[in-house]
């Protein structure tokens, strides 16, 4: 645990500067949406990259790029217009327990969101405008996402905040799409959601570093821990607490604090 807030703030800012830079992109899943310049393509590519973001980092990035190849490297168009034959090709994909059937169900869920709301970004921005609370939006999004026909097994690949899950991958995806600065890593395209509303993506590494720094006392990596950690980091940046995801994830990825 660090001595005081000023010392801790200085450490977090140094780590933020070390990792929130273009060099971070290539080996991170955020590299997948960075292949595209169109907002709709980035939304879809980012969602799928985040969806499979568990396990070995190199395998995540490699398989997320493979997903884009299955979608003809035109993810937004594929979601809108893929034929049955196109969708059948997805059966050849697998990443750990996420298989081709899950891939197809997720594409069709995104198609319904596109037809009903104008896309996943339009859904998140619109729902946030209505309620002003990302926790509510996360719960409602999962319910809306699985409203159509799908295999029950697909549901395990989208965490449920209402069951207390940390929703790490969704929080990471939201960081990509909402955060905006001049560093070039995050996209900042969902401007109707303020950065202050974001929550920290919490995984094993971030949790371990956060506890070592005295930012997190809760032992379980669940949603209550996400709220505690985000609340701690708002002391240092109320308007942009998710900036410190770079600090905590980066140092955790590199083996912990020296």
Radius of gyration: 18 Å
Low-confidence stretches are none
Query: What number is the mean pLDDT?
Result: 95
Kindly estimate the percentage of residues that lie in beta strands according to DSSP: under 5%
Shape: globular
| DSSP helical segment count | 12
Largest sheet: 2 strands, antiparallel
Distance between the termini: 13 Å
Number of strands: 2
Computed structural class: mainly alpha
From N to C, what is the helix and strand string?
HHHHHEEHHHHHHH
Secondary structure: helix percent: 40-55%
Order of strands across the main sheet: 1-2
SSE layout and pairing:
Blueprint: H1 5-19, H2 39-51, H3 57-70, H4 75-81, H5 84-89, E1 94-95, E2 98-99, H6 100-117, H7 120-131, H8 134-145, H9 168-178, H10 204-212, H11 223-234, H12 245-253
Antiparallel strand pairs: 1-2
Helix pairs in contact: 1-12, 2-4, 2-9, 7-8, 10-12
Please tell me about this protein's structure.
This protein is mainly alpha-helical and 258 residues long. It has twelve helices and two strands. The protein has helices at residues 5-19, 39-51, 57-70, 75-81, 84-89, 100-117, 120-131, 134-145, 168-178, 204-212, 223-234, 245-253, and strands spanning 94-95, 98-99. The chain has a two-stranded antiparallel sheet with strand order 1-2. Helix 2 (39-51) packs across helix 4 (75-81). The chain is globular. The model has no long low-confidence stretch (mean pLDDT 95).
């Amino acid at each position: 645990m660090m001595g005081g807030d000023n010392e801790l703030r200085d450490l977090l800012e140094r780590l933020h500067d070390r990792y929130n830079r273009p060099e971070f992109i290539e080996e991170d899943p955020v590299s997948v949406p960075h292949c595209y310049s169109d907002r709709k393509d980035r939304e879809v590519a980012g969602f799928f990259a985040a969806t499979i973001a568990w396990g070995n980092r190199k395998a995540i990035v490699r398989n997320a790029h493979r997903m884009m190849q299955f979608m003809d490297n035109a993810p937004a168009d594929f979601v809108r217009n893929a034929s049955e034959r196109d969708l059948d090709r997805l059966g050849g994909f697998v990443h750990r327990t996420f298989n081709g059937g899950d891939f197809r169900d997720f594409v069709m869920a995104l198609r319904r969101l596109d037809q009903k709301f104008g896309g996943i970004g339009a859904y998140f921005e619109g729902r946030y405008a209505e309620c002003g609370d990302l926790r509510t939006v996360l719960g409602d999004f999962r319910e809306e996402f699985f409203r159509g026909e799908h295999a029950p097994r697909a549901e395990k690949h989208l965490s449920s905040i209402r069951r207390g899950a940390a929703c790490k991958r969704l929080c990471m995806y939201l960081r990509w799409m909402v955060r905006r600065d001049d560093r070039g890593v995050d996209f900042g395209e969902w401007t109707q959601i303020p950065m202050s509303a974001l929550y920290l993506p919490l995984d094993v590494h971030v949790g371990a570093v956060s506890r070592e720094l005295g930012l997190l006392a809760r032992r379980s990596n669940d949603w209550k821990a996400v709220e505690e950690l985000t609340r701690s980091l708002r002391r240092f940046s109320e308007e942009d607490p998710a900036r410190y995801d770079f600090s905590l994830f980066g140092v955790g990825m590199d083996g912990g604090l020296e």
